[in-house]
UniProtKB/TrEMBL annotation:
Biased composition range(s): Polar residues: 626-640, 706-715
InterPro entries tied to this protein: ARM-like, ARM-type_fold, CIK-Related_Protein, Kinase-like_dom_sf, Prot_kinase_dom
SUPFAM superfamilies tied to this protein: ARM repeat (SSF48371), Protein kinase-like (PK-like) (SSF56112)
Protein name as annotated: Protein kinase domain-containing protein
Protein kinase domain mapped to chain residues: 2-284
Length: 827
């Protein structure tokens, strides 16, 4: 007996004081004398169902039966039995009188009769859904009869309700009683409240109140008959009016008819056990039932079975009722992924099903699972999330991305797998707009700084592309510190041609962020060098970018000329939105944004020649080409490597960049190169100059040998040789040195095509004679002869005899050694 709650709020039956639920509108139908209401929780607003039963006095027999139902529902737990939440009994005013009412609060459900009308299914889809529902109710009845030795007593359409996930559940436990088989001779009623059951639903033995026969029958005899009544009402679409109507089998599916007839056998002992119906019925063997059953025991399946199942699931889902897929399969699939029992292919199915939901429902039913999956250590799931991030990225809030998603995604930047690093990089195109400035400057740019020197050329290229895309999400200070350094000092010097092309286009598209001084001193000089790049696509883009930035400079000049002193610092050529054209370069897997009309030529040039879409695996041909081209020759040669080892980053990875290395200077006003002279000291030679410089690289050795000789006889090297940076350039003019060492240095002055020869040629004027004076000693294969000949002021042949060292054998004919011996004789 429940404790009565005497305190009520006058005037409203739904205004129970201290009742933690709000009672809403009732449904049109319910079992027995109960009223089924919609309801909500006062604590969190969640939906519930509230069943109420009223009587004139506490001893009303309906209330007594109702209390039995409450007790049974509270104590019996099964997945296919209605879940109990709360109950209470109170006196509620009903006009001048007081009415006693029992309230039961359960999970939110809908009467089966109303849900069937709402779904309005037909044909195969209806039969498949009914099969799944009957399968669930049969399991509930089997649990009561076989496991608990209980008899429900009134299984019918009204005693079944449907959850929000379209699962069927059994309730109406007012008649529920233990099966008493001990007193077979007893004539006392076994079902105390059997009078609540309609006559049309009673089997013959119950109609006759033959309790002795009932006790001799199996526990499922009465409820098997009830299952037959439920089947009839389902497929006929009408409430059972009389027992004789059960003989009308025209609406029963043929695959279910044999089982239907066995359930309604006139002999109680021969009626079909519900457990046998579950295991053997042909009607339950369909796609929907098999799919749901597989997913319910997913954690017991091996990986091969899971992969096979999830690869077939998208096609199966297309054939099932859409509402059943979204309300039943989708929650089960999300739960399986969340708790780790589903494999990575299930994520693709989840996203496909989620695409059928409205945006608000997607955020409620799918997005929370996806956010949790970002913390997974399964690489396959992480890769799948990153591949499909464009499908759900827009649905995530900025706070969720910044606090819950990005910390997990960022681990992919340093992953040992190239594909994960590349997918992580590309995902930033979707996530970056939702990141805070603190995360962008303090975390994201550190990772991008390292990726710009990644061993994989495709990732280096895509990093440049990404920086161009997210430039408008950086603040002004970050843009000034990062963009020019990243695009000129790194991207334009990369040995991978598509990376250089990406750097050029990134500069073009972000031109609105640069001041005129930066364009003139840092951007144009770096781009012009690439107009004679070995790669034709790089040259094409370099010319286009040069024209663009010259146009900006020309506009700036015209403003100054016309006396316009209000020259804005933003000098871009109307390339807004500033980043739109970058998507087509390397990120082909991500939806391309609209490109501005002014930048169409650059985008078209890119699409035609160098698909910068770095596939994270450069072909052998491209790798060979990249390794043979060096755009920023320097003494450190760190940028000449195809895969720099690491980036020595500062606080955010973009300190002062010189010669491709990152130095930490947090307080410096100068970012990147200090001034343009640094660039002038390190010009980029043509392809022929590169080859010649490589052939004559040992030219620095004679300089060391000369340093050991006396000052009076030392060879007067060209003035530019005092600067070690000119060594490789000075070596370039002797293009004809391989033909003969007798050629006068004046011939190098006549080479109009060699701009560096004109610089290196003047110093040898004073040593013209010595070069011609020792033709016999010079070997045509000895490239050092032309340099070694000038020192001998006495014009002696230093190697003609073995003097000066006693009987020591003559040394090999190397120019540096001849110079040393001649100078010693001169002393």
């Amino acid at each position: 007996m429940f404790k009565f709650l005497k305190e009520v709020v006058a005037g409203s039956g739904s205004g129970l004081k201290d009742f933690p639920y709000t009672i809403g509108e009732p449904y049109a139908s319910a079992w027995g004398s109960w009223v089924h209401h919609r309801g909500t929780s006062k604590d969190d607003g969640s939906s519930v169902s509230i069943f109420s039963l009223s009587g004139s006095n506490p001893q009303d027999r309906h209330l007594v039966a109702g209390r039995n139902g409450v007790k049974r529902l509270r104590t019996v737990r099964h997945p296919n039995i209605l879940s109990f939440l709360h109950s209470t009994e109170a006196e509620v005013p009903d006009g001048p009188a007081m009415k006693h009412t029992i309230y039961i609060v359960t999970e939110p459900v809908v009467p089966l009769s109303e849900k069937v009308k709402e779904l309005n299914l037909g044909g195969t889809q209806r039969d498949e859904y009914f099969a799944w529902g009957l399968h669930q109710i049969s399991k509930a009845v089997s649990f009561l009869n076989n496991d608990c030795k209980l008899v429900h007593g009134n299984v019918c359409l009204a005693s079944v309700v449907v959850t929000q996930t379209l699962d069927w559940k059994l309730h109406a436990f007012d008649v529920l009683s233990e099966f008493d088989a001990n007193n077979e001779a007893s004539g006392s009623p076994m079902l105390q409240f059997e009078w609540l059951v309609g006559t049309q639903y009673k089997p013959m033995e119950l109609t006759k109140s033959d309790w002795a026969s009932i006790r001799k029958s199996p526990p499922w005899a009465i409820d098997s008959w009830g299952l037959g009544c439920l089947i009839y009402e389902l497929f006929s679409g009408a409430k059972l009016a009389r027992t004789e109507d059960l003989r009308n089998t025209g609406s029963i599916p043929k695959s279910l008819l044999p089982d239907y007839q066995r359930l309604l056998n006139s002999t109680p002992s021969r009626r079909l056990n519900p457990s046998k119906l579950i295991d053997n019925s042909e009607f339950f063997q369909n796609k929907l039932v098999e799919t749901i059953q597989f997913m319910e025991v997913l954690n017991l399946k091996d990986s091969v079975e899971k992969d096979s199942f999830f690869r077939k699931l998208p096609n199966i889902a297309e054939q099932l009722p859409r509402e059943i897929v979204l309300k039943k399969l989708l929650p089960v699939l999300a739960s399986s992924l969340e708790f780790g029992s589903a494999a990575a292919p299930a994520l693709t199915v989840l996203l496909k099903m989620g695409s059928w939901l409205p945006a608000d429902q997607f955020s409620i039913k799918v997005l929370p699972t996806i956010v949790k999956l970002f913390a997974s250590n399964d690489r396959a799931i992480r890769a799948c999330l990153l591949q499909h991030i464009d499908q759900f990225g827009e649905s995530m809030s900025a706070q969720t991305v910044d606090e819950q998603v990005f910390p997990h995604v960022a681990t992919g930047f340093s992953d040992t797998t190239v594909s994960i690093r590349e997918l992580t990089l590309k995902s930033m195109l979707v996530l970056a707009p939702k990141l805070s400035q603190r995360t962008i400057s303090g975390s994201l740019l550190k990772y991008l700084s390292k990726l710009q020197v990644d061993e994989d050329p495709g990732i280096r290229t895509n990093t440049t592309i990404l920086l161009g895309n997210i430039a408008n999400y950086m603040n002004d200070g970050t843009r000034k510190r990062v963009l020019i350094n990243a695009f000129t000092v790194r991207a334009l010097r990369d040995t991978f041609p598509p990376a250089r092309a990406a750097g050029i286009m990134a500069l073009s598209v972000t031109s609105s962020y640069y001041e005129m001084t930066e364009i003139a001193t840092r951007i144009l000089p770096n781009i012009v060098v690439l107009t004679f790049d070995p790669d034709s696509d790089v040259r094409t883009k370099a010319f286009q970018a040069t024209d663009q930035f010259l146009q900006i400079a020309r506009q700036h000049h015209e403003k100054l000329t016309t006396g316009d002193n209000m020259v804005t610092e933003s000098t871009g050529v109307q390339l807004k939105p500033g980043n739109a054209g970058l998507l087509g370069w390397a990120m082909s897997s991500i939806t391309q944004k609209g490109k501005p009309a002014d930048h169409g030529s650059i985008s078209a040039a890119n699409a035609s020649n160098s698909q910068v879409s770095a596939t994270s695996a450069a072909t052998p041909g491209i790798g060979t080409q990249a390794s043979s081209v060096g755009y920023a020759p320097s003494t450190s040669s760190s940028l000449d490597q195809a895969a720099p080892a690491s980036a020595r980053s500062s606080v955010d990875g973009w300190g002062e960049l010189e010669d491709g290395n990152v130095h930490e200077e947090n307080g410096s006003d100068k970012e990147g190169w200090d001034d343009i002279e640094t660039f002038d000291d390190k010009p980029s030679p043509s392809l022929l100059s590169n080859i010649q410089a490589a052939q004559k690289r040992p030219v620095v050795q004679p300089k060391q040998a000369v340093a050991n000789s006396s000052k009076s006889n030392q060879v007067k090297a060209p003035k530019s040789e005092d600067d070690p940076l000119w060594g490789p350039i000075a070596a370039a003019p002797p293009k004809s040195a391989s033909k003969s060492a007798d050629i006068k240095p004046s011939t190098s002055h006549n080479d109009d095509d060699d701009l560096w020869g004109a610089i290196a040629a003047p110093p040898p004027k004073s040593s013209g004679k010595p070069l011609k004076a020792a033709p016999a000693a010079a070997n045509s294969d000895d490239l050092w002869g032309a340099i070694a000949a000038p020192p001998p002021a006495t014009k002696a042949r230093p190697l003609a005899s073995g003097r000066g060292r006693g009987t020591k054998p003559a040394q090999p004919k190397l120019g540096a050694q001849r110079i040393g011996r001649t100078s010693s004789t001169g002393m």
